[in-house]
């Protein structure tokens, strides 16, 4: 962008920051395009997940039976909260489900928290250190990332449906619920169940993506306000507005970061819990 030696316009600035580092150097041409991989989304998602798992492993390794430290106490409180939620929703073996819910919550919290870092930091490092022109570090503002997690939840829904009811019972439910087992109703039951699976998956991914994408755009606009203040000799009011707007949105966005992670975790538990039950 800086090749011309001129400052980018507001539109160019936002478009540049919304462009992913892709495997081919080209943008997606379709909603489903397996010829292009968003490398930045994959990198930051895996990096954050590994960091979360490492921290949990270190806490579990150093856990003591005596008076816990502050960090251990915080993690134990979070574990108890997730366990209570999973117990009230999933009626069955939660050996895998409760740790999964905890991991999902912390993973999404930490990915969302990338949005709290100044928007220019990672792109500046990528450009000046690694000579990478485009970088979008927020995985949850990429629909590919959120729908990928939602597809993982869909896989678990199907897995537990088959595990609890048996493959024959799961298929039987697909064709006989909710309207009844008469053969005339089979196509309608099957279609409705397919729509239900699709609606749960799409809404789960779109909800997280929509909130984080909107928050990311607001941070870009606030950054632009600061840029105009720096270029304007009489921009004292713009500077004050930039600081106030940035601080207010940062504080509010912390709530969004936590709330969206909690909602995703709870819906994951709800959908897996529904898979344990029959219509």
Radius of gyration of CA atoms, rounded to a whole number: 23 Å
Content-based structural category: mainly alpha
Distance between the termini: 56 Å
Average pLDDT taken over every residue: 89
Question: How many separate domains?
Answer: 1
Secondary structure tally: strands:
0
Poorly predicted regions: none
> What percent of residues are in strands?
under 5%
- Helix amount, in percent? over 70%
Main sheet: strands, sense, barrel: none
How would you spell out the order of helices and strands?
HHHHHHHH
Helical stretch tally: 8
Shape: globular
Overall description:
With 279 residues, the chain is mostly helical. The protein has one domain. The protein contains eight helices and no strands. The radius of gyration is 23 Å and the shape is globular. The protein starts with 9 loop residues before the first helix and ends with a helix.
Give the SSE layout.
Layout: H1 10-17, H2 39-61, H3 70-89, H4 97-113, H5 121-128, H6 143-176, H7 186-231, H8 236-276
């Amino acid at each position: 962008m800086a090749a011309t030696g001129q400052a980018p316009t507001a539109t160019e600035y936002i478009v540049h920051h919304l462009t992913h580092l892709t495997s081919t150097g080209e943008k997606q041409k379709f909603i489903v395009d397996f010829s292009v991989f968003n490398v930045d989304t994959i990198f930051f998602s895996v990096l954050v997940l590994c960091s979360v798992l490492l921290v949990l492993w270190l806490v579990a390794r150093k856990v003591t039976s005596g008076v816990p430290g502050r960090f251990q106490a915080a993690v134990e409180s979070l574990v108890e909260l997730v366990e209570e939620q999973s117990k009230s929703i999933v009626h069955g073996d939660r050996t895998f489900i409760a740790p999964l819910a905890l991991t999902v919550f912390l993973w999404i919290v930490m990915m969302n928290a990338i949005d709290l870092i100044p928007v220019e930091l990672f792109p500046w490092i990528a450009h000046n250190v690694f000579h990478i022109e485009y970088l979008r570090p927020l995985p949850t503002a990429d629909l590919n990332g959120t729908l990928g997690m939602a597809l993982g939840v869909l896989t678990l829904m199907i897995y537990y449906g088959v595990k609890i009811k048996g493959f024959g019972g799961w298929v039987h439910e697909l064709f006989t619920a909710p309207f009844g087992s008469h053969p005339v109703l089979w196509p309608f039951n099957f279609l409705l169940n397919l729509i239900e699976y699709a609606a749960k998956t799409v809404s789960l991914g779109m909800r997280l993506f929509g909130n984080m994408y909107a928050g990311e755009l607001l941070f870009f606009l606030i950054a632009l306000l600061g840029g105009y203040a720096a270029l304007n000799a009489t921009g004292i009011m713009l500077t004050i507005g930039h600081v106030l707007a940035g601080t207010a949105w940062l504080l509010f966005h912390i709530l969004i970061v936590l709330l969206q992670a909690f909602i995703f975790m709870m819906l994951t538990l709800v959908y897996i819990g529904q898979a344990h039950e029959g219509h």
